[in-house]
Amino acid sequence: MKYAFPDNFWWGSASSALQTEGTREGETTWDYWFAREPNRFHNGVGPQHTSTFYQHWKTDIQLLKQLNHNSFRTSISWERLIPDGIGEVNPDAVDFYNQVIDELNEQGITPFITLFHFDMPMAMQEIGGWENRDVVDAYARYAQICFELFGDRVLHWFTFNEPIVPVEGGYLYDFHYPNVVDFRRAATVAYHTVLAHAKAVQAYRAGHYAGEIGIVLNLTPSYPRSRNPADVKAAHIADLMFNRSFLDPVLRGEYPADLVALLKSYDQLPACKPEDGFLIAEGKIDLLGVNYYQPRRVKCRDSAVNPQAPFMPEWFFDNYEMPGRKMNPYRGWEIYAPGIYDILVNLRDNYGNPRCFISENGMGVENEQRFIENGQINDQYRIDFISEHLSWLHKGISEGCNCLGYHMWTFIDNWSWCNAYKNRYGFIQLDVETQQRTIKKSGEWFAATALNNSFDKE
Ligand code: BG6
């Protein structure tokens, strides 16, 4: 069967500043944490070991072109642009981002720019990070500076990438700095992130820029083990906490009432100011980026909660390992392509069918060298993964979902937070030592798909 996509469909990939640029002198939370606890990073490889986009941006953009990308998302490093988060703008950073943006436009590749992709200037974390409302204001100023500097040539902005992840990693589950385990602080960080988002949207609207502004959320559909009301309730609470805590404010301009009531009943609500509600209502977006990697399967808890243990989302559900589920064993994530369709249908039916696109989807695989044939990684598994997901996306579009594009994570194999180079996601293989780039079979497949705006699959 031939799967054809609408005209002007966005074909591309996503990356982020810290994971690709290299050549930095300043300090982000990641540099600080790595200097103190290198053992928390796979093989002790830290954030300075990147795919060197800071040097190789021009030739990398040629490679994007070769892969027939018509769009590409990366982020601006707040710390590179404003090293202490709040003070002087670094002119070298302005030059760098200007060159990248101009070259992308010149090559016919529309730049999609994220303002915050997990990397905070350490100076901002030192004053409390997202727990401090001064950091919210500093971020709003940074966003405004970016709009003023680049807003004439960047027409697609994203305030945050996966804002729930720093909440989970930094304040609940110990996989980002500052490694806190405290639900109320996590809720404060999430709430302030929504305020920061809304302030950036407000600044963008006030500047009457030509483009559009949105956010990128990692949506993990919550599937209950069964239709038993206890399982359904467990899935509903997981959905409130992990999806709707951001989805509702940015699309509806308010929090779900049952999430607020739940947190209130456990005395976990962040401190709110009366004017916050108006601000959040003004944070509604033009475009939603959806990152989809895996579903969340849950069941009701089998055991009672230990009242001495810290309050956690898992007080309300257990994770459910569905028999027969298909796993990506390297990352430990389930592969479930229909999830992409379920997300789009949910957006269509419950959120007014917003303009959206798949902003990340992908499969990290370990030791891909074993698949080299005639000098090229033959990653047929990745082609199967993409085409399977695209076929469900196609079904969503054919049923009226407003999905405008598909971006893959990622372009060139890159450094990945605590996993460093363990799992490779790229269309292009990176030799970390020599920095040599080699297109994988999936890169060629994607280039053909983007060129034809369609692909064939049985
Ligand atoms: C997304 C992030 O969560 O998934 C990326 O936006 C990240 O920054 C990607 O690299 C893959 O996840 P991981 O943890 O395997 O790198």
How would the blueprint of this fold be written?
Blueprint: E1 2-4, E2 10-14, H1 17-20, H2 29-36, H3 53-66, E3 71-75, H4 78-81, H5 91-106, E4 110-114, H6 122-126, H7 133-150, E5 156-161, H8 164-171, H9 183-206, E6 212-218, E7 222-224, H10 229-252, H11 257-265, H12 276-281, E8 287-291, E9 296-299, E10 318-319, E11 327-328, E12 333-334, H13 338-350, E13 356-360, E14 365-366, E15 372-373, E16 376-377, H14 380-398, E17 403-409, E18 423-424, E19 428-430, E20 437-439, H15 441-452, E21 454-456
Quick recap of the structure?
This protein is of the alpha/beta class. It is 40% helix and 17% strand. It has a single domain (2-456), classed as TIM Barrel (Alpha-Beta Barrel), CATH 3.20.20.80.
Describe the overall structure.
A hairpin with a 2-residue loop joins β15 (372-373) and β16. 40% of the residues lie in helices and 17% in strands. It has an 8-stranded parallel barrel, surrounded by 4 helices. It has a 3-stranded mixed sheet with strand order 7-9-10, with helices on one face. It has a two-stranded antiparallel ribbon with strand order 1-21. The mean pLDDT is 98. The chain contains 15 helices and 21 strands. It has one domain (2-456): TIM Barrel (Alpha-Beta Barrel). The structure holds 6-O-phosphono-beta-D-glucopyranose (BG6). The site of 6-O-phosphono-beta-D-glucopyranose (BG6) has 13 residues, from loops.
